[in-house]
Fold:
Amino acid sequence: MILPNLNYSNLKNSYLFFRIAQKNKEYLEKNPDKHLYRMGIGDVSLPLCDAVIKALHEAVEDQSKKETFHGYMDECGAMFLREAIGKHYRNRGINIDNCEVFISSGASDELGDILDLFDKSNSALVIEPAYPAYVDANTMVGRNIIHYASSSENGFLPVPTKDLKADIIYICSPNNPTGAVFDREKLQKWIDYANENGSVILFDAAYEAFIEQDDLPRSIFELDGARTCAIEICSLSKTAGFTGTRCGYTIIPRELVRHGMSLNQMWIRNRTTKTNGVSYIIQRGAAAIFTEEGQRQIKENIKIYKQNAKCLTDTLDKLGIWYCGGKNAPYIWLKCPKNMGSWEFFDYLLNEIQVVGTPGEGFGKCGEGYFRFSTFGSAEDTKIASERLYGLLKE
Ligand code: MLT
Structure:
């Protein structure tokens, strides 16, 4: 009889956001007249910007004519998009070659797929609280996971300890869920650690577009030594509202070599075997993000999410509730009031004021007692949710 992947029995019963969606569904079944104010999963609420929509329409037209029709795309990404992204980095003074850019169908897919590059015997260090897919993807392959807890004492930005032994290192900055951002000095410590120990950093830069402070790095490749130890995984989901459109990109520098093997070449080998590339239409839409017009328009949308963040943090300030994030990131990480547990607080908000957030415990044990609000909801819902929150929690 076939043996299934027994590692699946080591996973939690259901994925965090699936569990929350189930709880919401059950609540609405029991209370069909209620509206939920959704600030749980980080799913965008604003439509794609005009530049992207125009490019998508034109690409559909291209597919209708023999002369401009495209069949299979380059597995590593269409050169027009790889070049647009490469140029976007070079304009910021980061030297990236177009062939170091790989187009993906999104960061969450890529964060799991990229593990193909590493032997199962490698350990994976996850700085927690963390996006739960890091742990789940490594649990599925049976990898040893180092749960590297952070806390408010180190600003949720820990650095490697002297005795640390880790092979794959996940760094998400700006962080999901805490909104904390690594500064150059702390990030350099991880780069130096990885180079000294032959580790590889998987740098999740999905939220880089939300950084406001110029002194904070938006790409790990802004720092010395990153080209020999890091892979950057980026998404257009939050940057440009692509959660339902699906496109992202990954940077693997040519200098990233382990055991004499180039990870860039290995990824080409992987992609040419395992994918037929991202759709032509989607890649044309994505390329429009990197035009001057596209950049201006996506920034307008981000501004609206930042106003949501301000609305929520003003409310937390008035309530005297501790929080971080919300400034250089689209997430606000708060301490549950009245010493409530994070799932307890989730149920309390859902039942009393129909506001949905994400319990901190879902991001790792050290997230217990905390809660996350996403700022990607509609401005109207965020405003009403903030008022309801204030009404419920004021003394
Ligand atoms: C989140 O809410 O943490 C993210 O939106 C989930 C994701 O990007 O898959």
